[in-house]
Amino acid sequence: xxxxxxxxxxxxxxxxxxxxxxxxxxxxxxxxxxxxxxxxxxxxxxxxxxxxxxxxxxxxxxxxxxxxxxxxxxxxxxxxxxxxxxxxxxxxxxxxxxxxxxxxxxxxxxxxxxxxxxxxxxx
Length: 123
Known about the structure:
It is a single chain. The protein is α+β, with helices and mostly antiparallel strands. The chain has one domain. It is about 35% helix and about 25% strand. The protein has 3 helices and 5 strands; from the N terminus they run H-H-H-E-E-E-E-E. A 5-stranded antiparallel β-sheet has the order 4-3-2-1-5. Strand 2 (about 70-75) and strand 3 form a beta hairpin. Helix 1 (about 1-15) packs antiparallel against helix 2 and helix 2 (about 15-25) packs antiparallel against helix 3 (about 30-50). The longest helix is centred in the first third of the chain and has 20 residues, at about 30-50.
């Protein structure tokens, strides 16, 4: 599980949508959910690139509201400081990922701007 999670984090950091699809395809219960998430992530990646980001920098943390036991990652654009945060955890089939609007990052002093994944239709 940890290996898969690290592969997923690495793929998000470099905007590798094909690898993300491969990893998540095995874990989601339905293709509709998989495609909805992938499409939103693809749009978010393009928005990061429009702001001049060439990669995302990840920092570990956990949910600060609903389930404080669940861990995940904050992803920050290397130029824009725009961000998105996801809880990444184990499910029956492998791995699940979902956005977290109340994410607490373990690393402090991160200057964040706009949440790129929450724009318009949040997943």
